[in-house]
């Protein structure tokens, strides 16, 4: 988003960055003035970081004043965000927050954290959602101005074009699941679909990459051939290698807001197969950038994967279509965000 707004040229940007972000070095490459701070990486460092908050608040206040900030856009939820809102409010600056999830997913639900997020949303002037699905859920849970809640689609965090096309005559056989392993992600559905596909495609493989609790699936994984489990947090610099070895990225989710994995895979030229839930159906143009299974079942998931394996023309069309589609997403998203911030800033000046 920062790169797209910078390219657009409508605003003079400055950034507040965490040095612990996987994307920190990528932000520095933009050459934009920034306030760089240390946040935390685990519970221990989070507890220790509390002592730094008064000093960080003073540094943030100085940064707002020295940079002549006119509006603040928050692109990611963070426990510290609400603790800095009074500094923004006292300067009469519009605050726009990006909401990735209108409510926490199953397995992530922690009521105090949900209330903390809701508090931040309630004190914002505008909200950016990353799918129409999230916008609908958000507006049902909060009293918000309809014209101050926009949808700006999620673009890729990778820019690599990793996949050669065509596949040198080799049919797609390498399936990848990427992301945190949580119950709602439907790993069990994927394993059942994979077992069914093995009967007709004995050389098919499945790689599962991500942190989370894989124990419920351990016996099933051990009983099936051709599965690799990489059960750990995957740093951003390792993602290109994973995508480079994927023929298909599969998202067997039971529910979803939207997915950065889809945006990432499409930008790399890797077709996706997804279940018909949440914002996933907005991100995938069925038959053009990937396939949307007809139902959230292992059989329907396997049927869509089978189509992609057996239809070379479909596979190539989706691979090329994903790259083409992803090329313009950030530009479109930046335009939506720019219009919202410009309108809110004008309203604030009239008050």
Automatic annotation (TrEMBL):
<dbReference type="GO" id="GO:0016757">
    <property type="term" value="F:glycosyltransferase activity"/>
</dbReference>
<feature type="domain" description="Glycosyltransferase subfamily 4-like N-terminal">
    <location>
        <begin position="45"/>
        <end position="150"/>
    </location>
</feature>
<dbReference type="Pfam" id="PF13439">
    <property type="entry name" value="Glyco_transf_4"/>
</dbReference>
<dbReference type="Pfam" id="PF13692">
    <property type="entry name" value="Glyco_trans_1_4"/>
</dbReference>
<dbReference type="InterPro" id="IPR028098">
    <property type="entry name" value="Glyco_trans_4-like_N"/>
</dbReference>
<keyword id="KW-0614">Plasmid</keyword>
<keyword id="KW-0808">Transferase</keyword>
<protein>
    <submittedName>
        <fullName>Glycosyl transferase, group 1</fullName>
    </submittedName>
</protein>
């Amino acid at each position: 988003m920062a790169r797209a707004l910078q390219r657009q040229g409508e605003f003079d940007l400055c950034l507040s960055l965490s040095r612990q972000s996987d994307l920190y070095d990528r932000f520095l490459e933009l050459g934009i003035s920034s306030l760089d701070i240390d946040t935390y990486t685990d519970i221990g460092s989070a507890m220790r970081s509390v002592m730094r908050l008064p000093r960080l608040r003073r540094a943030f206040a100085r940064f707002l004043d020295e940079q002549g900030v006119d509006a603040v856009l928050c692109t990611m939820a963070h426990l510290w965000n609400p603790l800095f809102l009074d500094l923004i409010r006292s300067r009469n600056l519009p605050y726009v927050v990006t909401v990735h999830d209108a409510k926490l997913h199953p397995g992530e639900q922690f009521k105090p954290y949900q209330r903390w997020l809701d508090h931040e949303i309630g004190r914002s002037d505008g909200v950016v959602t990353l799918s129409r699905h999230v916008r609908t859920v958000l507006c049902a849970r909060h009293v918000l101005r309809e014209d101050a809640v926009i949808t700006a689609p999620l673009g890729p965090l990778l820019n690599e074009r990793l996949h050669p096309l065509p596949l040198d005559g080799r049919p797609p056989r390498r399936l990848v699941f990427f992301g945190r392993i949580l119950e709602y992600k439907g790993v069990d559905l994927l394993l059942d679909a994979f077992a069914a596909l093995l009967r007709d495609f004995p050389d098919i493989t499945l790689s599962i990459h991500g942190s989370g609790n894989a124990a419920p699936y351990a016996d099933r994984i051990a009983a099936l051939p051709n599965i690799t489990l990489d059960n750990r947090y995957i740093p951003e610099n390792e993602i290109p290698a994973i995508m480079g070895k994927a023929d298909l990225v599969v998202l067997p989710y039971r529910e979803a807001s939207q997915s950065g994995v889809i945006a990432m895979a499409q930008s790399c030229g890797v077709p996706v197969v997804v279940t018909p839930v949440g914002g996933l159906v907005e991100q995938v143009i069925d038959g053009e950038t990937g396939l949307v299974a007809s139902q959230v079942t292992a059989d329907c998931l396997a049927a869509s994967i089978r189509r992609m394996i057996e239809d070379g023309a479909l596979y190539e069309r989706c691979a090329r279509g994903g790259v083409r589609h992803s090329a313009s997403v950030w530009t479109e998203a930046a335009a939506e965000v720019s219009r919202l911030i410009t309108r809110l800033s004008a309203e604030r000046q009239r008050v």
